Amino acid sequence: MATTAELFEEPFVADEYIERLAWRTPGGGSRGGEAFDPKRLLEEFVNHIQELQVMDERIQRKVEKLEQQCQKEAKEFAKKVQELQKSNQVAFQHFQELDEHISYVATKVCHLGDQLEGVNTPRQRAVEAQKLMKYFNEFLDGELKSDVFTNSEKIKEAADIIQKLHLIAQELPFDRFSEVKSKIASKYHDLECQLIQEFTSAQRRGEISRMREVAAVLLHFKGYSHCVDVYIKQCQEGAFLRNDVFEDAAILCQRVNKQVGEVFSNPETVLAKLIQNIFEVKLQSYVKDQLEEHRKSDAEQYLKNLYDLYTRTTNLSSKLMEFNLGTDKQTFLSKLIKSIFISYLENYIEVEIGYLKSRSAMILQRYYDSKNHQKRSIGTGGIQDLKERIRQRTNLPLGPSIDTHGETFLSQEVVVNLLQETKQAFERCHRLSDPSDLPKNAFRIFSMLVEFLCTEHIDYALETGLAGIPSSDSKNANLYFLDVVHQANTIFHLFDKQFNDHLMPLISSSPKLSECLQKKKDIIEQMEVKLDMGIDRTLNCMIGQMKHILAAEQKKTDFKPEDENNVLIQYTNACVKVCGYVRKQVEKIRNSMDGKNVDTVLMEFGVRFHRLIYEHLQQYSYSCMGGMLAICDVAEYRKCAKDFKIALVLQLFDTLHALCNLLVVAPDNLKQVCSGEQLANLDKNILHSFVQLRVDYRSARLARHFS
């Protein structure tokens, strides 16, 4: 049976079980062979089945026995649970009875306590009244014999008694009890002084418990506020020894905040009174000393000190907000700050504007002095306005040209200084202005920036630059206006950045926003008009310079050489010099502009450049070799036009190059060339004008082919 049990393995699989049984039987291998004995295997299987049947019967009997035992124990457990439930119900009933009994006894005890208290309270009052009458008689007799008045250690009890006697004395008629009332008042005052002196001594010794005890007694005396004053005064002794009064005040309040709750029953009131004393005495005196020294003599230092002191005061106030100062501590601290600075903040913006105006004027004047430049008066009024309108419509230079010697009269250092001053003014304005006045004050500061940066500096430089642009027929003219454009663009970016970073946050939610945006738009549009005008006149000058080069360098024999077979040059000298000049100007334009302005100006320059070359080529007659040379020149001009990186300009020179082919093409091929892709859309008069430039145009053969 043990062997049979060994064959059962988990998990049980019948096929594997039979396989293991056959394998353990001699001659029972499943693969057959010479040793295989089926009879023996059958015999083993029969015996094993019998063993399994015996094992099954045994296990079945054991299972039945266990089931009977389990049923018996279940019945016993159920019986025991029923008994426990009955016991629990009995206990619960006893508990309810006990709870009712306890409630009944408690009610009786409370009732009895109320009765005892009703009897005892009048009795205690009577005893207390008897004692007070006894002490009152002593004051009537004029001799204080009780130990409570003569023993200094019983000052607390004496204070309690005299405080009550003092209240009683207030109700007595003066004519009959004037003397005793005077004695009680005198004793009341003496005890009050003794208690305050005791509190002072305890504070100096650092005895918190004694301070708390005396303060509790003084709480019912009129001199309690004097006790608080003494505490506040002694707290500040030795607290302000360093140069930083604000840090000293913060440390003092932090220390007192930890202590005041252990001494007084109303710590928030005491701490608030300490803070009020610090603000109205220490801080106000310190602020006055710092500001009055520079108020009339040095506006810059005055404004810096005012901003610094106000900032440090508000920072101190933020730290004090952590403490318990009562219900509305924000309003309390704001009133304290206002009481210190109100006389300085009322006219702050006037001082700010006055300083900003004088400082900006000084920065500009110092710059012009460093350039040995006497600033011209641009002028206003009817005549000047008329000149301006004529100049805008005709683009004519009115008045003599001014030689600026290459000076743009724009300085990034000046601009940075003006913007820095304005930035500081905006910061001070944000901190020092009343919220209702903030947008208005910020707008005034912005107006100062516009006046001195945009009008007095940039606009003046543009006017001077415009006046310095030579006429278009000037020879060897130096063109500096593009330098003005470059610097003006840089300054505009700085101006716009300050507008967005420092002005916008101050006016973003006020009606002043639209006013500022409009003012900014107007000043920029006004300057863009002058920039456009200056760029246009500069381009005219560039074209004028190129005309001078062409007039001086281009010879009639370039395109109609005497010896057609001995032309050694690839392109003319005039072309070389013009292309060199154009490349320099293109590079200068790219360096002076930014964004889409580069393409716009280069397109305009390229169109004018093309028109110049187009008109120039029509001034000459061309032989066959001269026409080839003209094509080479135009090819070089086209290569130069590629530097513009403008499709329209390159297209114009491609068309011009195709037109020049008409100068050299055989007469029989003229119609074919004219109908080509690049020339097919051109006006026939333009094609005819180029064909007319050929020296052989008047020959009957050419005229016949082109007609």
From TrEMBL:
Asked if the record carries the keyword Transport, the reply is yes
Location of the Exocyst complex component Sec10 N-terminal domain: 38-146
Gene Ontology biological-process annotations = exocytosis; Golgi to plasma membrane transport
Q: What is the protein's name according to its record?
A: Exocyst complex component 5
Source domain of life: Eukaryota
Q: Which residues form a coiled coil?
A: 49-87
Keywords, comma-separated and alphabetical: Coiled coil, Exocytosis, Transport
Biological source species: Jacana jacana
Family, per entry: Belongs to the SEC10 family.
Q: Which GO terms describe its cellular component?
A: exocyst
InterPro entries, sorted: Sec10-like, Sec10_HB, Sec10_N
* Domain Exocyst complex component Sec10-like alpha-helical bundle: from-to ranges: 157-706
Q: Does the keyword Lyase apply?
A: no
